[in-house]
Design a protein that fits this description.
With 530 residues, the chain is an alpha/beta fold. The chain contains 15 helices and 27 strands. The strands form seven sheets. The chain has an eight-stranded mixed β-sheet, with helices on one face.
């Protein structure tokens, strides 16, 4: 293989040179990279054959069997007669120790899964200052580090893109060129932030007994997967933090197989599918590879996502009749019909929603829902091209509005009936860069601050029933784009609205600026124009 020549040359040098004391070289990496293949290449190399008096090989497993390993090792030395087969484990270990004593040996222990197993395996290997060597392979970096003597563990990495491409062309196309239409195919990279949000929405993350947030607990899970080489880092930022990952094809196929056998995931290609409730009432996950397929019902489905598609077709799913158990809905690869968007309001258990190609969105919770999971509506991935957004009765923390403030195309924002909770809303520099209309109705906050560089294109502010709010940000008085402030049943902010009008007319020369104040009288609004 392309890269193993370099790996082999480097590791042979470590094996045949170095200290007289016994040493261990561990090779670790994710499954399918060729750890065993590389170990065999070293084991059978001419320089190794000439260097060591005895070469032994054994293969461990996730279910550790000491006796089987001892038989494997002794089988390389002599034939296993009946007397040997009848020995106890201690007697077998002693026999192996005596065979290796005062000899320069090489032992390969393939596929070690635990530190306890390694502690047991290594006992019959003497150190007589003969320059003996041990090669250990494992998927787990923690095991490779634990077993280290002098030499540092060797991380067997994936081929570089150039090496992989050269190998593919060599094996598949021989001397010919690769068809141009295949040149752009790459593995999918998944953002870490998205994965963590999905895990939380799926209830895969258990709350910590300490004060750790669910996000930090999920990140611990994530780093553990990376250390076990089950997930590969695809992208990092300038600080070295992992931003995106992908997985090896072997792990992907194995995961799909296990998910299917456990009735956990149904993966659909281009076909019509009818989903019936399972007899045990067990919920599942539905991944639609070809969005052109039709799905008639999702009674017990908790996760629905569409895989990437070139055409981003329109989809039709009747959320008003079924799909009521959905917690995760990923529609980022498809376009939605208007009726489908409206029907999202019926998904009362939804915790994660990802959309694209949507210009207007309303998200709300019925007052009939007794209590919301704190992560119920905090992890929406808003479409970057969203122009109009209405949030109703979500009771989110004001901190969460920063994500909305970064939507560069958002022009109309309506926050109604306790969409956010908390005493203070602080708007930072650059937030809401293209917002033109802001409507705030029945919100319980009392303080609202906005920097001079926020809301640079704001034109209209519509306020209703914000009884606790003390004043409108004074910075609105110096915004040349402002046209109107309308106040309904917010007595505490009337004076600040009039002050902003004064600043707009006298300081900004904006004679067209208006303030409309509506007062509540006898169950009807009586208009007062200022």
């Amino acid at each position: 293989m392309v890269s193993f020549e370099r790996e082999t040359e480097m590791l042979i040098e470590q094996l045949v040179t170095g200290p007289r004391e016994s040493d261990l070289i561990s090779i670790f990496g994710m499954p399918g990279l060729g750890k065993t293949t590389l170990a065999k290449k070293l084991y059978n190399h001419e320089a190794i054959y000439n260097r060591f008096n005895i070469r032994l090989w054994c293969c461990s497993s996730q279910t550790y069997d000491k006796r089987a390993l001892l038989f494997q090792l002794l089988g390389h030395i002599s034939e296993l007669d009946d007397s040997t087969k009848n020995m106890s484990n201690d007697e077998l270990a002693e026999k192996l120790y005596k065979h290796l004593k005062r000899k320069r040996y090489l032992v390969v222990v393939d596929n070690v899964w635990s530190s306890e197993a390694w502690d047991d395996i290594k006992r019959p290997f003497p150190d007589d200052d003969k320059g003996s060597r041990i090669i250990l392979t494992t998927r787990l970096e923690s095991i490779a580090t634990y077993a280290m003597i002098s030499s540092s563990p060797h991380h067997l990495c994936l081929f570089t893109e150039e090496e992989s491409w050269m190998l593919l062309k060599e094996k598949v196309f021989r001397e010919g060129d690769c068809p141009q239409e295949l040149e752009g195919i790459e593995d999918q990279k998944v953002p870490v932030k998205k994965l963590i949000r999905l895990w939380i929405a799926e209830n895969f993350v258990e709350a910590s007994t300490t004060s750790k947030s669910l996000e930090l607990v999920a990140m611990d899970y994530f780093m553990d997967l990376i250390s076990r080489n089950l997930v590969m880092v695809a992208k990092t930022n300038s600080l070295g933090e992992v931003k995106a990952v992908h997985i090896h094809d072997l792990i992907h196929e194995f995961s799909l197989m296990k998910a299917k056998s456990g009735n956990f995931l149904l993966r659909i290609h281009n076909q019509f599918v009818i989903i019936f409730p399972s007899s045990q009432g067990r919920s599942g996950h539905l991944n639609i590879v070809e969005p052109t397929c039709a799905v008639s019902s999702g009674q017990n489905i908790t996760t629905l996502r569409f895989s990437s598609s070139v055409n981003s077709p329109l989809v039709d799913l009747d959320f008003t009749r079924s799909w009521k158990h959905l917690r995760v809905l990923d529609l980022s690869s498809v376009n939605l019909r208007k009726t489908l968007v409206y029907a999202l309001q019926y998904l009362i258990h939804l915790k994660y929603l990802e959309l694209q190609q949507l210009k207007s969105l309303k998200v709300g919770v019925s007052e009939l829902v007794p209590a919301l999971d704190p992560y119920g509506f905090e992890d929406f991935t808003y479409p970057s091209n969203l122009k109009k957004l209405t949030l109703v009765n979500l009771k989110l923390s004001w901190i969460k509005i920063s994500t909305i403030g970064r939507l560069s195309n958002l022009e109309v924002l309506k926050l109604e009936q306790h969409a956010f909770k908390g005493r203070q809303w602080d708007v930072k520099d650059g937030d809401f860069p293209n917002l033109k209309v802001l409507k705030l109705m029945d919100l319980g906050f009392s303080e609202w601050t906005a920097s001079d560089d926020s809301y640079p294109n704001l034109q209209q502010v519509l306020m209703q029933s914000c009884w606790n709010l003390k004043e409108i940000p004074e910075s609105f008085g110096s915004k040349c784009t402002m046209q109107l402030i309308e106040v309904r049943s917010c007595p505490s902010i009337e004076s600040s609205a009039l002050k902003i009008k004064e600043m707009q007319i006298e300081e900004m020369g904006n004679s067209e600026f208006k303030v409309n104040i509506w007062k509540w009288k006898s169950q009807i609004f009586s208009e007062k124009v200022v």
